Amino acid sequence: MNIGIVCYPTFGGSGVVATELAKGLANRGHNLHILSYARPARLDSFRTDITYHEVDLSTYPLFEYPPYDLALANMMVNLIQFEKLDILHVHYAIPHATSAYLAKQILNSRASKVPVITTLHGTDITLIGSDPTYKQVVDFSINQSDGVTAVSEYLKEETYRQFDITKEIEVIPNFIDLDRFKKSKKEHFKKAICPEGEKIVTHVSNFREVKRVPDVIEVFHHILENGVKAKLLMVGDGPDRPKAEQKCRELKMCNHVRFLGKQEQVEEVLSVSDLFLIPSGSETFGLAALEAMSCSVPVISSNIGGLPEVNIHGETGFLCELADVECMARHATQILTDEVLHSTMAAASRKRAELFEMDAIVTHYENYYEKIRSRMK
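Above: the chain sequence. Below: its structure as tokens.
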């Protein structure tokens, strides 16, 4: 099949999943065309079976903000026409699903047999999509899609709750490359960070407010107060990084915390980690948690959204109520000081991650593509 995939190019979950899905589909002999306003972060090597198309935004004095959705729709029209797409798969509802609808209307009957599949990832529904400014457009665009998927049962139910959706939503969870995300020997790296044998606690995110990075700092402060010798690795960057850095200074523990910025090879950091913290205020799946678990790292997370579908309480880690930093610190201390418990949870984490193995989920998407295509014949 010739498959078009539309995504955001950032380090966020939707862009990562879309790009890795493109790679998985290409490995099965499909031709992929990726559309975005910049090259996706995970599209990091040249391949003849994956073509990247940059959506060009022309500047014009009349527009304070160039209309990306229109430029994207125009690119979709060109690809459907000239690359003979069999599927157009858009990740994140805003504005991708709307642009796809517009593209099909421009092509009219010529595009009638090109299915548009929209994958909902999270904040396109729970945050942005529910904003009255966009709600009706998102509602309409989802219903006009030929197929709709969501990355978790939680997101599926939340979409039905917040919108008037008549389409059936198929749950296809996010996935993991088990060969890439696995514990590897990086003792030299760990020794450099922890010369006295300290434990390593890690957090990975885009440092947006919803990730609650100041809570990570507070939890870690409690861990130190509980007598655990440890270092905290903060991976990523974003608007709340200054708040986290300031919190470290206020608590006088900057010598125990390292801000590593964005890391392409995050699995190398996870390989030396003993515990992963994800106290998010909203998480429709929890891909960062899954990546940690695949590297045999137990997880402490908030009990919200899709996280309980990934992190199993008492088995792969622990779940705590939102903002309950004392609960998180208590369970973190328990894992870091009990070698038997840590070993058991590390093994269970990897085993749980294997349920989200990449090949199985790519097969699920392939089958779904064929299911939607057959409906339109």
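The two ends are 15 Å apart (CA to CA).
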